[in-house]
Write a structure and sequence with these properties.
The structure is a homodimer of 245-residue chains.
Chain A lengths: L13 H14 L8 E2 L2 H8 L3 H13 L3 E4 L3 E4 L14 E3 L8 E11 L2 H7 L6 E11 L2 E11 L8 H6 L4 H9 L3 E12 L2 H7 L6 E11 L3 E10 L4 E7 L1
Antiparallel strand pairs in A: 1-3, 2-3, 4-11, 5-6, 6-7, 7-10, 8-9, 9-10
Helix pairs in contact in A: 1-3, 2-3
Chain A binds a DNA duplex (19 and 19 nucleotides) through α3.
Chain lengths: 245, 245
DNA sequence: GAGTGGTCTAGACCACCAA
DNA sequence: TGGTGGTCTAGACCACTCA
């Protein structure tokens, strides 16, 4: 199981192997979001390595926001239901600095089929069943974002408009609490586009006014894509913040 | 100098203290971009700590892209002149995937004064001298980005249009090689705006067409802001990529 | 072969938290 | 007071690079 011998043909550092084992326990549901995982010393015993090696594996998962360390308490599986994590992937900030809460205005939830492109994006066969959600996010009464969300139907069997509304639009905590799907990372592609049609109407804009288009694909454990999302945002009083290092 | 005793009122981990000392040597120019810094063992001796502690400090600087480790060779000060680092902060990618090189079309380089807002952004007194550069970046012959750059005049004494053109618009490697200013991180704010005036003309657009506005502030060692930049981008065939974790 | 960073261990002690 | 994560050390050995 554990292979510490360097000359092995498929040599990998021990802490990488431990990291894989920990990830498998997460995927397998041995520890669920919010749970405390065993202590470093216990894990060291289980895997027959030193505490320092386990520590390095946990450190890696902690910097990826998959685990959360708390001195004196333990190490926990990260969860989207924790306060402050609900909008983890939302980078939009009001120009005057405050990160206010948004209101969710549900529009529709329908069944669909993945076309070839969406099949590639979500790693599905073309024609596979999907669920599509449209909604409007408003900020102090004014429309801000028009969201179009597509997820594969299979892992989200039973997802419907009621559940979205009950959850007040916090999709990620819904995915996690109802379907056991935790998103760990996302890729975004941004463009500037002109408002038109349904979207312009919902946002109360004239045709042709500029909108920030944010296309996002979110991934769960094992880099499996589980959600496609297109957000069209009015950026008169908000901007998308990003830090480059 | 080094304080490893935990009960000290201003307790900080040893590796953080080492990190500060290393950063000071970088600011002071003891090691310049591209240089190899002393080996871990040598630094451990100099600071009277163990190799592991030095390693942890270097690890931190390496994940911040300030130092670069190379097994078997040594640890080096990161540099913008290295190939592949020239466009380090440019997140724009063509839709069909290729990360092509851009052509730089110089427009102007003028002297100016910081207004109150720019003073705050660049940590200058209002009225301090600045240098402003405007340019157009083109991609296979077609305009792509209109850049407006403002830097404080003092640290960049002698910066002019010729130098920008000689450098083919690679501003960061110019700052570094000519003025010893290395940028280590940047903050960006993105919006969608409508093209107008000078910019619309330069980019060959009609008034009102959507543009991606990227406002960037870049920082050198010690989080000192050294450059403000506004890039207005045509995103018909390009998008801004971002990874969220 | 000499020198560098990379991995792994074992153990000591500290800081934080909860009961 | 006991358990957790956090820091620090000393030392062994491996992998990579270059002369």
């Amino acid at each position: 199981m554990i292979d510490k011998y360097y000359n092995s043909p498929s040599y990998k550092p021990l802490y990488d192997q431990i990291k894989v084992l920990l990830t498998q326990s997460l995927i397998g549901g041995e520890w669920r979001p919010g749970d405390m995982i065993p202590s470093e010393i216990e894990l060291a015993g289980r895997y027959k390595v030193s505490q320092g090696t386990v520590r390095k594996a946990i450190d890696a998962l902690a910097t990826e926001n998959i685990l959360i360390r708390r001195q004196g308490k333990g190490t926990f599986v990260a969860t989207h239901s924790a306060e402050g994590m609900k909008l983890r992937f939302l980078r939009l900030t009001s120009v005057d600095g405050q990160k206010e809460l948004l209101q969710n205005e549900f529009i529709s939830c329908t069944k669909g089929k993945a076309d070839v492109h969406m099949g590639q994006v979500l790693d599905l066969k073309a024609g596979a069943s999907t669920i599509e959600i449209k909604r409007l996010l408003t900020f102090s009464g004014r429309p801000l974002i028009f969201d179009h969300i597509i997820v594969p139907a299979a892992p989200f069997k039973g997802l419907n408009g009621n559940k979205v509304e009950e959850n007040n639009g916090s999709m990620y905590s819904l995915y996690e609490s109802e379907f056991g799907v935790r998103m760990i990372r996302a890729e975004e592609r941004l463009k500037a586009v002109a408002a038109k049609g349904e979207v312009a109407k919902a946002l109360g804009l004239k045709e042709g006014e500029p909108l920030l288009s944010i296309e996002r694909v979110s991934f769960t454990y094992g880099d499996k894509p589980m959600e496609w999302r297109l957000g069209l945002c009015i950026t008169d009083n908000h901007h998308y913040m990003n830090e480059l290092e």
